[in-house]
Structure prediction request, 227 residues.
Amino acid sequence: DAKTTQPNSMESNEEEPVHLPCNHSTISGTDYIHWYRQLPSQGPEYVIHGLTSNVNNRMASLAIAEDRKSSTLILHRATLRDAAVYYCILRDVTAGGTSYGKLTFGQGTILTVHP
Amino acid sequence: NAGVTQTPKFRILKIGQSMTLQCAQDMNHNYMYWYRQDPGMGLKLIYYSVGAGITDKGEVPNGYNVSRSTTEDFPLRLELAAPSQTSVYFCASSHGQGGTQYFGPGTRLLVL
Prediction:
């Protein structure tokens, strides 16, 4: 499986933008870039995903480098509720593939948001 | 919709005891997964199922068994509990292998 590299931790102030980087230099053409986050004492929750183009949803934006070897999750205005571990995951969902859509979690980035 | 539910929330087991962790989803998802998360680590896949009657091993299946008799339920069985199985267990489901995975709240297991 292609691996991702994320900083262990990042800090932000409330209501400021946060840019969470992820490197995935061995990404394959069929890998989607997914982001999940895990709030304290909860199960992970989906944030956003993309393949080649930048993506926006109500939670965040995903900026994908042109060569797809890195991506950045952008939280436009961090709130205290955004304090969580953020996981960048490559997911191969090729029909008939052997990955069965699994999510391979690394250690993620611990985001601390200061009031 | 309740989404993905898990019971119990917390359990203490003695070494050698057995138990079943329950997982249910009401979203009619065909794919279901069991993960474990050790302190400070990411989640690791134990078993998964692509539909009723079909299950397969993930990365860390030793010491566990699963069954999938219905679309809704995917129980995880620990036969002979060991301290190494102390962890938080998460169940997840998705619509197809490409669908968003929805996670339950987790079961915290302590084996002493």
